[in-house]
């Protein structure tokens, strides 16, 4: 079995996130987003790649949406209502509450302002949301009897979640967008240490490492304060949800603190309504905000008012939050047209703008003129402040998460191609984890896991509990401690107990797998113990005296009498015991023995174990035949090489 | 052990389970305010389910009057009229009505689960909490030196439980403030004094077999509560928690109250589900999760207290008293699930609760129309919350302008809490989140100044806002502590005033004199 990952969107780009993962026969769609930079069919993921016939209910087990941003949920009404997917759709409670607002806002901009043909209606959005099953964090949901999913806090926007999916023994996590550092209104991403075959992570900031957020927040507040103090107007184009609330908390606090009276406006009724949701969903925000909800709900902004269109050209300073975020149209564009030509005014830009939007044009360099379309051109003389506290994790955060989860494979999506390549190299070289950067339409196949449950035998478990101590002495030089605090590093004995257990995995057909201790193996298999024996027959030089030559015919050395044999053995024994003083040498008369090594004089003419090396003439040699078991191999060879050098004399 | 607890075992591997599991009942429970608690030994781990307080036992103490009617304290004749007629419905006949002299005049102590003291706290590995009342006795346990068990409760239960403990501590300290401190070992606990108690009170103090006297404890402090809450590990519904690599614990909604749950315990030996007092459908809390019980080897039904109530009704004993004064009682609506098959009844259960709430609301309107005030002292937050939603609407439709006050040290916290927990509420209320309406309509009543919240009866805002007749939600339902005591004293002589209480198994506080 393999896990197949088909990328329909956000492959080597940012926009229209949509990944289809097939895992042990289940098929999950993660996110169903739209691309803000396109107006044609490229706006939506190419759903035909999922199913040629268009029977999406059969092709997919479920759809999971990570958060309410349009590049993650924008195509959902189209997919469920126009393409006709009727299966389950999962998202967190806040996402279910807030996604329809985003979708409706987008639909209005598309139809009312740009005059485009709508791809889904308000009614479609409503019907679509009815199919959504809301989830709480960490709630373990069985989509069907095999597919289990679970949401983890992602900290990107209110209700953003990372999703864990498990089928059989294969498991994976799709992060969606996440943030590893807590910000003013959201906590940091949190996930359990899971065993994963695959991690699909965003990589918006694949190579950026960001410093402290507070410095950047101060910078932003200073820029805004300076502008309004000089009588200028501040335009903050944002999406209705998320950034608007975060910046609003920031400004509201600052206004309170500095006792400023300059009005802060919200462009449409929409965002005020969104604050209602934020109030009810306060448990999904950061720890600090959660703690204080009983006395003061942080989303009850004191200084914020509704904006009227007539106020665009009203004199005096003000701060305005307007949608949409990248000045791609709508009200923020309208206000931009009026305010951009004055150098007193300030426009803040979000950290990321999709190519093709005005926001993107303003970010690249410092243009003095911006072409709205063929006929209209706007002078841009206002100040531009780029907000760089986007709620995405930076490169360090991505690496930290990958390292923490240590999955078997990583797929990067939702980023820019060259930067993703750099990150991919880093993951592969530093963490030694295979990493893929598929483009839209590509499929990545990775092997999946199958666990076999093995029963451990009692002897094995007992052997596992044997301690394996190692003593290390090290000086305790804690890195966190400065030398002043710790002038005399004390040497301490450190004891490590890394237990190594050896066992044997027994897998037989139609039987459960077991892990047993080696002592049990024979019993388990019903076999007798087999021992590996080595044998070697070699010549030892013998020096003969004249007398013995007479007694025994020269050729009949192989028929030496027992007394001679004993004598020779005794001779070898004495020599060996001089040389190997530590070993226990036993003389059994006919043969000698050291541990499992035993040697005797070989009287066979054609011994199987005989090896001729030809260095000495066989005529003057006596053969010794030895055997030993594997455990004493080293010793045996030492004795043999020693014996080979001997010259024995028969008197 | 001593008590025989009814539990039905539907098991496939019955024999095997008996070997690997041990079940010990500590108390069999008596309704919502005092859920059963028991100890389970599974796979070598000792699990305690719930650690409640028998708060109904507070009734053996006499309520204290406040300084603003000092003359009453000395005039026992007038004072006695406010004492609750006190009924114990056991087999024996009711003796002559109790009068105020019978009650113990002392700083109240609290009756814990007696049998729990027989266990070494350090031997407990896990404590599972199923509802907010199931954790009221927890600080007594967690302040033990050797106690090191992991405590699990749902996020909402832990929040509610903390609020309730806080309220209890604050009401108690108000009592002590008026009454003064007691010596370490109070006079009333002496044998000679206890012997003099009338038998119904004696039974509460001693228990049926006289062994429960050891369960009495002076109340914990707010520091104890803090320490206790810090030790609670919070979970969400259906969150998998792995204990020691051996047990998988999961909480599933029981429908009874916001955050209340049934636990499943999966181990290598057996998969067990423990069903606490549950409701199939609710107008407030998340619906009963039936699927969680499927495929378990063993299901423990521990709480049959509500059924006993029903039996009592059938036997036609003194317990029927409420029906004679129906307007003064709201029946205990925590109907247990006796059988999973009864699932079909769920809409009926819901309708019944709705009818009862409507009935109470109409009684409230009647009382107000007659110029009386209404005092509501209920055990279950979810019932109080629904009444808070409905009563102002009823008043409006009857064209009456009467203020509704909630007087409690935790009033504003409780109401703020209920409006930020959509995940823990029933489907209809979750729909409110999705259509951007407040989860409970009293948010609107508060805005329109129909509903007012005050931390205590002495708060200056209350005194400047005071208007009679009025409708007041106040604690404590035992009528021994808290603002309710003072208000009862003010209105007990008024024929037109109304007291709304829940019927509890061993106590029904109502008084014909009072009406």
From TrEMBL, chain A:
Residues 15-232 form the Metallo-beta-lactamase domain. Its main location: nucleus. Keywords: Hydrolase, Nucleus. The keyword Iron does not apply. It is found in: Nucleus. Residues 244-362 form the Beta-Casp domain. InterPro entries: Beta_Casp, INTS11-like_MBL-fold, MBL, Metallo-B-lactamas, RibonucZ/Hydroxyglut_hydro, RMMBL. The keyword Nucleus applies. One of its GO terms (molecular function) is hydrolase activity. One of its GO terms (cellular component) is nucleus. Gene3D superfamilies: 3.40.50.10890, Ribonuclease Z/Hydroxyacylglutathione hydrolase-like (3.60.15.10). It comes from the Eukaryota. One of its GO terms (biological process) is snRNA processing. Belongs to the metallo-beta-lactamase superfamily. RNA-metabolizing metallo-beta-lactamase-like family. INTS11 subfamily. PANTHER family: CLEAVAGE AND POLYADENYLATION SPECIFICITY FACTOR FAMILY MEMBER, INTEGRATOR COMPLEX SUBUNIT 11. This is Cleavage and polyadenylation specificity factor subunit 3-II. It comes from Erythroxylum novogranatense.
Automatic annotation (TrEMBL), chain B:
Residues 384-507 form the Beta-Casp domain. GO terms for cellular component: cytoplasm; integrator complex. Its main location: cytoplasm. It is found in: Cytoplasm; Nucleus. Keywords: Cytoplasm, Nucleus. InterPro entries: Beta_Casp (IPR022712), Integrator_9su (IPR027074), Metallo-B-lactamas (IPR001279), RibonucZ/Hydroxyglut_hydro (IPR036866). Signal peptide: none annotated. One of its GO terms (biological process) is snRNA 3'-end processing. The keyword Signal does not apply. This is Beta-Casp domain-containing protein. It comes from Erythroxylum novogranatense.
């Amino acid at each position: 079995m393999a896990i197949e990952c088909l990328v329909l969107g956000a492959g080597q780009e940012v926009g229209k996130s949509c990944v289809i993962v097939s895992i042990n026969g289940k098929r999950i769609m993660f996110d169903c987003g739209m691309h803000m930079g396109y107006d044609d069919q490229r706006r939506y993921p190419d759903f035909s790649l999922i199913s040629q016939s268009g029977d999406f209910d059969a092709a997919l087990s479920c759809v999971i949406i990570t958060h309410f941003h349009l590049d993650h949920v924008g195509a959902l009404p189209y997919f469920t209502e126009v393409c006709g997917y009727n299966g389950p759709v999962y998202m967190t409670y806040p996402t279910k509450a807030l996604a329809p607002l985003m979708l409706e806002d987008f639909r209005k901009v598309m139809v009312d302002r740009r005059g485009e043909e709508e791809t889904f209606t308000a009614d479609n959005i409503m019907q679509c949301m009815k199919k959504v099953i809301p989830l709480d964090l960490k709630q373990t949901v069985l989509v069907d009897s095999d597919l289990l999913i679970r949401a983890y806090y992602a900290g990107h926007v209110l209700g953003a979640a990372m999703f864990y999916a498990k089928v059989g023994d294969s498991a994976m996590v799709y992060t969606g967008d996440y943030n590893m550092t807590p910000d003013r209104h959201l906590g940091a991403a949190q996930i359990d240490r899971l065993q994963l075959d695959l991690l699909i992570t965003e990589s918006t900031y694949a190579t950026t490492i960001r410093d402290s957020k507070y410095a950047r927040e101060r910078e932003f507040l200073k820029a805004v304060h300076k502008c309004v103090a000089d009588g200028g107007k501040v335009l903050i184009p944002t999406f209705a949800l998320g950034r608007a609330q975060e910046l609003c908390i920031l400004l509201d606090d600052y206004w309170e603190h500095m006792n400023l009276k300059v009005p802060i406006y919200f462009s449409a009724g929409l965002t005020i309504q969104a604050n209602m949701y934020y109030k009810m969903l306060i448990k999904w925000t950061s720890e600090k905000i959660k703690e204080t909800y009983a006395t003061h709900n942080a989303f009850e902004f004191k200084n914020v008012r509704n904006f009227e269109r007539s106020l665009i050209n009203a004199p005096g300073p003000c701060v305005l939050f307007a949608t949409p975020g990248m000045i791609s149209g709508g009200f923020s564009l309208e206000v931009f047209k009026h305010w951009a030509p004055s150098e007193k005014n300030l426009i803040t830009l979000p950290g990321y703008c999709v190519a093709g939007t005005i926001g993107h044009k303003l970010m690249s360099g410092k243009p003095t003129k911006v072409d709205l379309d063929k006929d209209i051109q706007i002078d841009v003389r206002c100040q531009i402040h780029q907000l760089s506290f986007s709620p995405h994790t930076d490169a360090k955060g991505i690496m930290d998460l990958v390292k923490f989860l240590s999955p078997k494979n990583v797929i990067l999506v939702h980023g820019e191609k060259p930067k993703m390549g750099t990150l991919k190299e880093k993951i592969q070289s530093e963490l030694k984890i295979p990493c893929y950067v598929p483009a839209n339409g590509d499929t990545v196949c990775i092997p999946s896991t199958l666990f076999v449950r093995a029963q451990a035998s009692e002897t094995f478990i007992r052997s596992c509990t044997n301690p394996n101590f190692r003593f290390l002495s090290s000086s305790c030089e804690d890195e966190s401690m400065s030398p002043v605090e710790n002038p005399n590093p004390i040497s301490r004995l450190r004891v490590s107990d890394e237990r190594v257990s050896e066992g044997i995995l027994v897998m037989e057909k139609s039987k459960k797998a077991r892990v047993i201790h080696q002592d049990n193996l024979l019993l388990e298999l019903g076999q007798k113990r087999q021992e590996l024996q080595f044998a070697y027959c070699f010549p030892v030089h013998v020096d003969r005296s004249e007398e013995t030559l007479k007694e025994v015919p020269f050729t009949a050395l192989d028929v030496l009498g027992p007394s001679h044999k004993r004598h020779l053995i005794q001779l070898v024994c004495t020599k060996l015991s001089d040389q190997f003083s530590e070993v226990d040498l036993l003389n059994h008369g006919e043969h000698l023995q050291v541990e499992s090594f035993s040697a005797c004089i070989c009287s066979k003419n054609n011994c199987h174990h005989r090896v001729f090396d030809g260095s000495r003439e066989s005529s003057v040699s006596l053969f010794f035949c030895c055997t030993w078991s594997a455990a004493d191999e080293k010793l045996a060879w030492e004795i043999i090489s020693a014996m080979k050098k001997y010259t024995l004399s028969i008197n | 052990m001593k008590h025989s607890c009814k539990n039905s075992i539907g098991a496939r591997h019955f024999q095997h389970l008996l070997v690997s599991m041990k079940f010990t009942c500590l108390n069999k429970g008596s309704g919502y305010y005092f859920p059963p608690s028991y100890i389970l030994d599974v796979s070598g781990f000792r699990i305690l389910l719930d650690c409640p307080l028998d708060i109904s036992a507070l009734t053996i103490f006499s309520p204290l009057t406040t300084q603003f009617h000092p003359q009453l304290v000395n005039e026992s004749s007038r004072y006695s009229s406010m004492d609750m007629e006190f009924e114990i419905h056991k087999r024996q006949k009711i003796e002559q009505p109790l009068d105020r002299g019978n009650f113990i005049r002392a700083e109240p102590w609290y009756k814990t689960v007696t049998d729990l003291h027989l266990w070494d706290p350090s031997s407990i590995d896990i404590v599972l909490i199923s509802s907010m009342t199931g954790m009221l006795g927890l600080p007594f346990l967690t302040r033990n030196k050797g106690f090191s068990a992991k405590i699990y409760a749902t996020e909402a239960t832990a929040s509610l439980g903390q609020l309730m403990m806080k309220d209890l501590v604050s009401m108690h300290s108000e009592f002590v403030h008026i009454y003064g401190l007691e010596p370490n070992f109070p006079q009333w606990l002496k044998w000679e004094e206890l012997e003099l108690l009338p038998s119904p009170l004696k039974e509460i103090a001693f228990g049926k077999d006289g062994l429960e006297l050891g369960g009495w404890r002076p109340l914990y402090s707010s520091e104890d509560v803090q320490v206790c809450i810090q030790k609670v590990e919070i979970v969400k519904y259906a969150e998998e928690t792995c204990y020691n690599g051996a047990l998988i614990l999961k909480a599933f909604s029981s429908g009874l109250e916001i955050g209340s749950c049934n636990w499943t315990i999966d181990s290598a030996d057996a998969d067990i589900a423990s069903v606490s007092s549950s409701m199939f459908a609710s107008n407030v809390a998340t619906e009963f999760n039936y699927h969680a019980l499927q495929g378990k080897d063993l299901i423990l039904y521990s709480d049959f207290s509500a059924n006993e109530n029903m039996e009592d009704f059938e036997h036609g004993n003194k317990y029927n008293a409420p029906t004679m004064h129906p307007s003064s009682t709201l029946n205990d609506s925590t109907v247990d699930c006796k059988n999973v098959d009864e699932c079909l009844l769920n809409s009926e259960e819901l309708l019944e609760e709705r009818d009862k709430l409507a009935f109470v609301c109409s009684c409230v309107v009647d009382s107000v129309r007659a110029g009386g005030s209404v005092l509501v002292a209920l055990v279950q937050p979810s019932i109080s919350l629904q009444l808070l939603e409905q009563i102002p609407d009823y008043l409006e439709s009857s064209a009456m302008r009467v203020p509704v006050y909630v007087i409690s040290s935790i009033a504003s916290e409780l109401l703020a809490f209920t409006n930020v927990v959509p995940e823990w509420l029933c489907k209809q209320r979750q729909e409110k989140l999705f259509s951007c309406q407040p989860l409970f309509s009293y948010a609107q009543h508060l805005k329109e100044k129909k509903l007012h919240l005050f931390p205590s009866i002495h708060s200056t805002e209350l005194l400047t806002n005071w208007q009679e007749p009025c409708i007041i939600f106040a604690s404590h339902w035992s009528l021994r502590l808290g603002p309710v005591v003072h208000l009862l004293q003010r209105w007990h002589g008024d024929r037109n005033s109304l007291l709304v209480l829940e019927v509890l198994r061993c106590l029904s506080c109502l008084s014909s004199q009072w009406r």
